[in-house]
Amino acid sequence: xxxxxxxxxxxxxxxxxxHALLNQTDLKELDLVSVASIPEVLKQVxxxxxDLGFVAIENSIxxxxxxxxxTLTFDADLLIQREVVESIELNLLVSPGTNLxxxxxxxxxxxxxxxxxxxxxxxxxxxxxxxxxxxxxxxRHISEKPQKGFASIGTARAADAYxxxxxxxxxxxxxxxxxxxxxxxxxxxxxxxxxxKTSIVVFQDSDRPxxxxxxxxxFAARSLNLTRLESRPTKQGLGNYCFLIDLEGxxxxxxxxxxxxxxxxxxxxxxxxxxxxxxxxxxxxKDKASVDSKKADSWLDELRGRIGK
Length: 309
Known about the structure:
The chain has helices at residues 16-22, 38-46, 66-75, 110-115, 117-123, 135-144, 156-161, 211-220, 254-267, 288-304, and strands spanning 6-10, 31-35, 52-59, 63-64, 79-87, 91-94, 105-108, 128-131, 150-154, 165-168, 178-185, 196-203, 226-233, 241-248, 270-277. It has three domains: 1-87 and 176-188, D-Maltodextrin-Binding Protein, domain 2; 91-168, 3-Layer(aba) Sandwich (D-Maltodextrin-Binding Protein, domain 2), CATH 3.40.190; 189-297, ACT domain (Alpha-Beta Plaits, 2-Layer Sandwich), CATH 3.30.70. It is elongated and about 90 Å long. Helices cover 31% and strands 29% of the residues. It has ten helices and 15 strands. It is α/β, with parallel strands linked by helices and 309 residues long.
């Protein structure tokens, strides 16, 4: 990637987004632009104010980051370039000298608060929770009014950045806490790597019995593995939903392309969110479905070649 490219991400300094971003050797060398919210990150890319955007999209405990999913689905026309999965440790940050029994208010990003729900209930049952634009924004807010009744949930980096004390570390309710981030751009589909993922949104023409089954059968018939299936309201009335789907494979694979074509033809419009390198190790049998599809195409071509003879 060119060194002059601008990359927008959720700030300020000390967010989990920044932490994940700085672990990407090529991305941390770009011109990094911290912005105040996830929609603003995606808007800057849509408006060509930034070449790339980096945002959280899913958490292993709390599920999808809906503001990211909805903005990509309804408000932006962007393509995912890669995914990054990072382990997340949540910490209780306070002004130096604050004791646990003095805390009355806890600030953080809503997803971070939800990931610590049980710990907060057990250890700070009477403390109220308040939402912030990011975990780092909450830490900054605490540092600007050093009152002993306030705490935030965030990274160790945020504690260092804003002069806070890490009172309790690892307060998330589950130890296997991972967040998935995506890098997005206004155009371009990365070349296939053999270990790829494709993301789409399927909109139904109408709500009818068996409509979801019909969608799923397109994948099952081609032995395509889904890694995520989620419904989201289309914001066009109660009961009107679309389906957000991640599947293994790349749009350059014949079987994936054929599946998307049939989905578009039979079930309504399909929004393509990208084919991109998948995070983690490749533990699947590579391109078996594509090989089977090619064999079937050759068989069918041979039969059709007999027509008129």
